[in-house]
Amino acid sequence: MIVLEYKVKGKSDQYKAIDEAIHTTQFIRNKAIRYWMDNSIQFKIDRFALNKYSTTLRNQFPFVADLNSMAVQSAAERGWTAISRFKDRQWGMGNGQWKSQPIAHCPFPIP
Description:
Blueprint: H1 12-43, H2 47-60, H3 62-65, H4 69-90
């Protein structure tokens, strides 16, 4: 991942808009992860299902609809990246064994 850093001299309303976009993106990512936690066993949630769920979030929450559609999908994909990283770290490579002890508050088995 490439990270660019730069200094910006903006107005307070511009900083407020940037902060609002960041919080909205975090909200979408967290909702996507929660959706996977609640429904992963019944519906076999994958990254495509999370992208469809991001459309549902756009229809459900007006502040999400204010964000660009590509940004909303990108936030949902970041949620899937976190989920796949979690699964890779906790579950063995196809041998059906846990790499480490499962998380105590994890209410579902990791497929």
